[in-house]
Amino acid sequence: MDRKNDGLRLMDGAGYKKIIIACDSYKGCLSSREVNEAIASGLKEWNSEDAASEIKKLDSDDAASEIKNLISDDASPEIRKLSPEDASSEIITLEMSDGGEGMLDAFLSAMKGERVKIHAHDALMRWVEAEYGIVDDTAIIEIAQTAGLALIEPEQRNPMKATLWGVGEMIMNAYRRGVRRFIVGLGGSATSDCGIGMLKAMGDDWKKIRQECSFVLASDVTNPLCGENGAAHVFAPQKGADAKMVQMLDARARKFAEVSAKHFGYDRSEVPGAGAAGGLGYAFLQYFNAEARPGAELLLEEIEFDALIQNADLVITGEGHSDHQTLMGKLPQRILEHVLKCKESDKSHVDCSQLAGDCKSPESSFPLVWLVSGGVSDKQAMLDAGFDRIIQVTPDSMLLDEAMKPDVARNNIVRAIREQFAL
């Protein structure tokens, strides 16, 4: 396969047989689900011009049963439509999150959990209605539900006052329901209190929680708690802190870490991820022996992504804006890594069509990967990393304020996808 000019892969003249769409949200504009649906709409419009093609769209709720069908010797007739001799196409949309915005929705969609609504406090101790998820004995906590920066008016943002108390309330509510395992998404916080507010909300129960519960942190942040790369210096200015506040917040974090280290006999303030969510990562690592994992990886494991892509022809991923930071562990890069890893591990195999009697090269049995983002910088770096096609959906001439309007963004996506198939 020529990765420099992938064109549109044809299979017996029918086009793509199976397309997986797994995009992050276009933050402040469209959710992951909305981005996926816009791309799917563009594909449907393109396919409607081909009378031989029929697109079937699946949500991630169907992923598990889809995998079983794919690996079964008695695959259903519906799945056999994906074989090269059939002209039908299938679209699978997978709601995505890296542990930040939309994390709760993405995980509940993948894991088919129960949504729990409670009243809790936001970062300024105002009452809000918050949600978390429960799947069996596991709670899915998105801290932005209570401590989110988006909940605080810009003029009210002050990380010296903001607290993670509401996160403690969510955890306590789940704990009292019998939950003993937690997956916690650490993105989008308005705070820099090192988790002190959460611990205060738990009261003395934090000791029982430490003994009885396990925590997995969904976050791509690898910063330590303190110092020039720590929570205060790197993230507090985004939350309303001025230079003086940054110094005070960093000093407060150092003091909290010193006191905690004396109490436990160990110090995890330098562990990668301790600086996530204004130091909340540190509180979980130090007080609850949490395990930190990239949020996107957790979700990809839950939906068994590697199995889903085995016979796909095209994977479409994306985000609001792609640049050099995309290649530093963001969702699109993780999607790409999974495809390339599966391709590399299977190079020695040859996929033969029993009906047609022909053989495909190992590379052709794995999908192309397209990056579809609102804006794109460093396009060549993206191509060099392995993306087969880079698509910027926002016209260069369009102002950002206009492009951020949901209806405009949706139309831009549909248009951009249709244009790709017109090339």
Which helices and strands, and how do they pair?
Elements: E1 18-21, H1 32-47, E2 55-58, H2 63-71, H3 77-80, E3 89-93, H4 103-111, E4 114-121, E5 127-135, E6 138-142, H5 144-147, H6 165-176, E7 181-185, H7 196-202, H8 205-212, E8 214-218, H9 231-235, H10 243-264, H11 280-288, E9 291-293, H12 295-302, H13 305-308, E10 314-317, E11 321-322, H14 331-345, E12 351-352, E13 359-360, E14 368-373, E15 375-376, H15 379-385, E16 389-392, H16 400-403, H17 406-422
Parallel strand pairs: 1-3, 1-10, 2-3, 6-7, 7-8, 8-9, 10-14, 11-15, 14-16
Antiparallel strand pairs: 4-5, 5-6, 12-13
Helix pairs in contact: 1-17, 6-7
Describe this entry's structure for a reader.
Helix content is 38%, strand content 17%. The chain has helices at residues 32-47, 63-71, 77-80, 103-111, 144-147, 165-176, 196-202, 205-212, 231-235, 243-264, 280-288, 295-302, 305-308, 331-345, 379-385, 400-403, 406-422, and strands at residues 18-21, 55-58, 89-93, 114-121, 127-135, 138-142, 181-185, 214-218, 291-293, 314-317, 321-322, 351-352, 359-360, 368-373, 375-376, 389-392. The chain has a six-stranded parallel β-sheet, with helices on both faces. A six-stranded mixed β-sheet has the order 4-5-6-7-8-9, sandwiched between helices. Strands 11-15 form a two-stranded parallel sheet. Strand 4 and strand 5 (127-135) form a beta hairpin. The longest helix is centred in the middle third of the chain and has 22 residues, at 243-264.
